């Protein structure tokens, strides 16, 4: 951020000097601090706007995993976008002698902004890469497999004089193994059924799956076990994977992997979605303050108990949090244990039936969104009790932990509330479809259908 601030200042100063010397006809004496108020304001305020733009694009996250070439392309795109905004907001109304001066102004600012910004990026990323290569920094890595293929991968990644960033903690054994270099140099951390325990105890950040073709049926189990955790999965591809283009290579001298990141969205999509969530939630709480106040008063007058109801749910990466809702049931509704609601559930208050039909009971969850525990659109958050039952029948349930749970979801739009585990599994199908296809456009569609459901009162 510091580099970007001074890069934006330098670009604006370069544009100012260029305009005074080459575009404006009147003689101008360049002083240490020019008296032009627009220049001074731009010098100190525009860099803040540039930092915000870079933040939205995901620049300031996960620096050790960034590619310099990808960062150069992204920096150029963001520079082009930002300069276009600055040009139309602040420079287009300037008086010039020739129309071509506009082009020169635009190009000079673009060149300066990109050059100065990427120069700072290059310094930081080179420093990060050197830390990785010299083994000062690395990601705790676990190899799953102990056969010849696992040995070859380990040899290739560990035989160079520099590091690729893998800090090998050990391996997980599959179906027994014969002694080889891998088993001699790395500790055996357990078998496949101990995978979760090993990941937690060794603080694993990356998992390399190196298994033979005959063991491929175990990949689904491994991926489902790891899904929902902040772990990068890398799979050694077979010939079909290579020919189909799913194998990627990050280093010229490195191994090609099929890579599965822990999150579905890209950096800029995650940050954009987060800003949309926060701004929309704040707007919703302000606009709906009076209706929510009326609902709170009605709840208090019609049944005993608190207005709000807290319940522990599982959020992103399986982390528990307290979801906040308007109370729609009588107090002690679950004194006999966790239960799902049914169509004629006697535990629901009269106002509760109305709130559930129009999704009014969900409105306090905007507070969960602002706190960062939820998103406006995302899969439905479940309790540990029901999540355990779902995982027994659908091990892929953990896939929904890749993203934050939502106030509304494709599953709620398509199916609605579930009365039993069987119905929860049917709704889960839509949540998985959402995760595999999620994006800003799909979120917009889900929101539109949610609004229609609320207006028509067709919620199940």
How many domains is the backbone divided into? 3
Q: Mean of the pLDDT scores? A: 85
What's the total count of β strands?
A: 10
- Give me the oligomer status: single chain
**Secondary-structure class:** alpha/beta
Strand order of the largest sheet: 3-2-1-4-5-6
Mind telling me the C-alpha Rg? Answer: 28 Å
Cα-to-Cα separation, first versus last residue = 48 Å
What characterizes the major β-sheet? 6 strands, mixed
The residue ranges in which pLDDT falls below 50 over 5 or more consecutive positions are none
Strand content: 5-15%
List keywords for this structure.
6-stranded mixed beta sheet, 460 residues, Rossmann fold, 10 strands, 3 domains, single chain, alpha/beta
Describe the structure.
- The chain is of the alpha/beta class and 460 residues long.
- It folds into three domains: 2-133, no CATH class; 139-260, NAD(P)-binding Rossmann-like Domain (Rossmann fold), CATH 3.40.50.720; 267-456, no CATH class.
- The protein contains 17 helices and ten strands.
- The strands form three sheets. It has a six-stranded mixed beta sheet, sandwiched between helices. A two-stranded antiparallel ribbon has the order 7-8. A two-stranded parallel ribbon has the order 9-10.
- Helix 8 links the parallel strand 4 and strand 5.
- The chain is flat and about 85 Å long.
- The two termini are 48 Å apart.
